Amino acid sequence: MKVEATRFRVKSGKSQQVDRWLEMLKGRMPEVLQTLDREKMYAEVIFREKIKGEDFLYWFSFQGEGGELVSTSPYDVDKKHIEFWNECIDREFGKEELNPEVVMIPGRILALMK
Fold it and tell me: How far is C-alpha 10 from the chain's CA centre?
């Protein structure tokens, strides 16, 4: 199982577009949840933070091994998600991986994730 937390910077001037992106994901949640199975994504959370006037998005996830990539998805909601990503995420900043030091998952939950 992969446990990931990653920070990405939002391109300057794209804050309102990020608002629309996140609202799109919330508004299409049944479709979003459908896509997680093929990715073997057990949980995915997006956090947002503003630091010194800059927007950052954080992805936190629990994912099983061998899941499909979002880029290979046949679902329209994933295609829209990738469009927003390409428009809003600052590739020059790159990404900042946060290292999980301790992963705490009760055994009964972990058994369901296999």
Answer: 14
Domain 2-112's class?
alpha beta
- pLDDT at residue 92 is higher than 80: yes
Q: What is the pTM of this model?
A: 0.90
* Averaged pLDDT for residues 22-32: 97
CA distance 12 to 89: 9
Does pLDDT of 81 surpass 80? yes
The CA–CA distances, whole Å, from 96 to 7, 71, 80, 83, 93 equal 5, 20, 24, 21, 9
3-state secondary structure 4-40: EEEEEEECCCCHHHHHHHHHHHHHCHHHHHHHHHHHC
Task: Name which of 107, 103, 94, 101 is nearest 11 in CA terms.
Answer: 94
